[in-house]
């Protein structure tokens, strides 16, 4: 089925807007690809260095351009549960490559930090910038010019967007993303959230809190809630970078290993040395990016991707805007209820039909572009499958379920959980912002209340503990943008604000910072642009001003007479302390040149 006319209209507008930058990008990709496999361009000394540590058979293969060589970019470290399984992958990939008549080398490692570890800590101020560092680190690995395709091993919040930017920068090379999968289900996410709120109220101690957290985050694999990490996996599958059905298979299982080996074989098959050359930069186009946004809306995905998708698209010469994202939200229904938008986790989502069912439903009504290229071939329809293994232990792909195995987790396009997507854009005299509404109760979609001003999240938490916030209010937390302090997530606010909301108060958050991809219970207008440190109007708000956060009309405003508002001075604060400790001094140059949130908050574009 052809794409819905409304989606086609938005896509055509995106194509027209992107023409100058996209055409220049494609020209660069084709010129690089036209030079052919690049080991032939290396001097003998260069090449000898490149395979010095290889075994005899791999050296022989790499001495010429007869056999393809895969560059592995890995985000492995064994502190992150999501990335610990990657320890085994290089050996598995090398073996699978040799069996298929190719070679694979680890081209480089990239940093992978965990926002769950750094929440509320100084290190969180490095988190967003790590995305661009990851892109640059991957670029260094691939710059050796030894590779015919790249395999990207990454899962979590900034890692996949950074790797995607690198894949587009090296768009003349085919790129296959290889997931590691979610950890098995532990303590239910709603129970974990309940214990967090009890701790915030002082009703349970640290020992009980740590026990609950440890039961929730208990083994190898991605955290099981539907935050940024699992939104990444959804995106890579719906945009065609994963093999069909690969996203949510648990680590260290026969099927997971089989999918990793299949990814290796597929990467070898789509190099310029074969008959299915699929350079990543040409594979991904405006339709693929629109599909990614649609998947985000249909699943109630992470707000962080209103930053990441914009930056990822720009790396391919595509100029996605918040307006595009907002208009697509009005077209795409919400089909998934996964925590924090429901009680299920991603394992339940996968068992209910998962990505295959979701893609099949969207395609059935023209709510995705089917006429795209993927690493698997032509068209998105082959992704509308259910994954498994046959009696012989081989991967088996069956047609996707026609009906959800659990209607409380996955709905149909004819009877969605809500008729529009999970994200909404806001604008008004405070600036532009993003709000996630898929987990917010409808009676909280509009909040109008006096402002209470804070310049860091700890100040709000202290005020909550002191009993100073038992009222209706809009918390304005400013000087949290990329130029101020790297735009950290403010997820530690969630328990306190959640408690106040549960007590019956009408509360909301307005900030130029970020919230966790797992947040959503309390209405939060985030990513406010321009940010306070860049002279944005959010710095004009005064204590007690009436602030309106309206996710229905898409409004974010201070109810102050226009003449007074325009003549108010903006507040400034001393940001010196943001520049030191836990490596923050190394990122001064990033803070100085970071772009606005609406353009991806990047130092690269």
TrEMBL record:
GO molecular function, one term: metal ion binding
GO biological process: D-gluconate metabolic process; Entner-Doudoroff pathway through 6-phosphogluconate
Highest taxon of source: Bacteria
Segments forming domain Dihydroxy-acid/6-phosphogluconate dehydratase N-terminal: 68-381
InterPro entries: 6-phosphgluc_deHydtase (IPR004786), Dihydro-acid_dehy_C (IPR042096), DiOHA_6PGluconate_deHydtase_CS (IPR020558), ILV_EDD_C (IPR056740), ILV_EDD_N (IPR000581), IlvD/EDD_N (IPR037237)
Domain annotation Dihydroxy-acid/6-phosphogluconate dehydratase C-terminal: ranges: 408-601
Gene3D superfamilies with a match to the protein in the record: IlvD/EDD C-terminal domain-like
Keywords: 4Fe-4S, Carbohydrate metabolism, Gluconate utilization, Iron, Iron-sulfur, Lyase, Metal-binding
Pathway connected to this protein: Carbohydrate metabolism; Entner-Doudoroff pathway
Family the UniProt entry places it in: Belongs to the IlvD/Edd family.
Functional summary from the UniProt entry: Catalyzes the dehydration of 6-phospho-D-gluconate to 2-dehydro-3-deoxy-6-phospho-D-gluconate.
Listed NCBIfam families: edd
Name this protein carries in UniProt: Phosphogluconate dehydratase
Species annotation: Georhizobium profundi
Recorded name of the encoding gene: edd
């Amino acid at each position: 089925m052809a794409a819905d006319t409304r989606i086609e209209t938005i896509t055509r507008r995106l194509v027209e807007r992107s023409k100058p930058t996209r055409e220049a990008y494609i020209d660069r990709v084709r010129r690089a690809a036209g030079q052919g496999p690049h080991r032939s361009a290396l001097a003998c000394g260069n090449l000898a260095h490149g395979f010095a540590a290889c075994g005899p058979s791999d050296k022989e293969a790499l001495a010429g351009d007869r056999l393809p060589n895969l560059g592995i970019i890995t985000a492995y470290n064994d502190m992150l549960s999501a990335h610990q399984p990657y320890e085994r992958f290089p050996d598995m990939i090398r073996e699978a490559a040799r069996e298929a008549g190719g070679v694979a080398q680890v081209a480089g490692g990239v940093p992978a930090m965990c926002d769950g570890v750094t929440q509320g800590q100084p290190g969180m101020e490095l988190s967003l910038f790590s995305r661009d560092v990851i892109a640059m680190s991957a670029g260094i690995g691939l710059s050796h010019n030894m590779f015919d395709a790249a395999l990207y091993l990454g899962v979590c919040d900034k890692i996949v967007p950074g790797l995607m930017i690198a894949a587009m920068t090296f768009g003349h090379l085919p790129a296959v993303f290889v997931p590691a999968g979610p950890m098995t289900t532990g303590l239910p996410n709603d129970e974990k959230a309940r214990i967090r709120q009890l701790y915030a109220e002082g009703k349970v101690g640290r020992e009980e809190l740590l026990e609950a957290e440890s039961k929730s985050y208990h083994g190898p694999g991605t955290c099981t809630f539907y935050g940024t990490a699992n939104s990444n996996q959804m995106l890579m599958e719906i945009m065609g970078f994963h093999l069909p059905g690969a996203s949510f298979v648990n680590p260290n299982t026969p099927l997971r290993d089989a999918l990793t080996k299949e990814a290796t074989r597929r990467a070898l098959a789509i190099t310029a040395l074969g008959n299915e050359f699929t350079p990543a930069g040409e594979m991904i186009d405006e339709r693929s990016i629109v599909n990614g946004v649609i998947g985000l809306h249909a699943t109630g995905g992470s707000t962080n991707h209103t930053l990441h998708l914009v930056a990822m698209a720009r790396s391919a010469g595509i100029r996605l805007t918040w307006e595009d994202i907002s208009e697509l939200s009005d077209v795409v229904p919400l089909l998934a209820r996964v925590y924090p938008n429901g009680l299920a986790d991603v394992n339940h989502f996968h068992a209910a039909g998962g990505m295959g069912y979701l893609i099949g439903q969207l395609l059935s009504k023209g709510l995705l572009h089917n006429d795209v290229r993927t690493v698997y071939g032509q068209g998105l329809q082959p992704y509308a499958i259910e994954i498994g293994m046959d009696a012989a232990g081989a991967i088996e792909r069956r047609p996707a379920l026609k009906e959800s195995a659990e209607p409380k987790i996955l709905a149909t396009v004819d009877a969605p959980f809500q008729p529009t997507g999970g994200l909404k854009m806001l604008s008004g005299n405070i600036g532009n912002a993003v709000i996630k509404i898929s987990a917010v109760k409808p009676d909280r979609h509009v909040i109008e209340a006096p402002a209470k001003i804070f310049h860091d999240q700890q100040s709000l938490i202290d005020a909550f503990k002191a009993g100073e916030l038992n009222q209706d209010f809009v918390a304005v937390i400013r000087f949290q943008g990329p130029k101020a302090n790297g735009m950290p997530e403010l997820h530690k606010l969630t328990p306190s604000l959640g408690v106040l909301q549960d007590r019956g108060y009408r509360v909301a958050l307005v900030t130029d910072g970020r919230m966790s991809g797992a947040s959503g219970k309390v209405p939060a207008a985030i990513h406010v642009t321009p940010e306070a440190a860049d002279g944005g109007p959010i710095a004009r708000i005064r204590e007690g001003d009436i602030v309106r956060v309206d996710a229905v009309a898409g409004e974010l405003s201070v109810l102050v007479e226009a003449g007074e508002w325009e003549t108010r001075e903006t507040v400034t604060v001393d940001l010196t302390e943001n520049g030191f400790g836990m490596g923050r001094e190394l990122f001064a140059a990033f803070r100085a040149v970071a772009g606005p949130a609406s353009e991806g908050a990047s130092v690269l574009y």
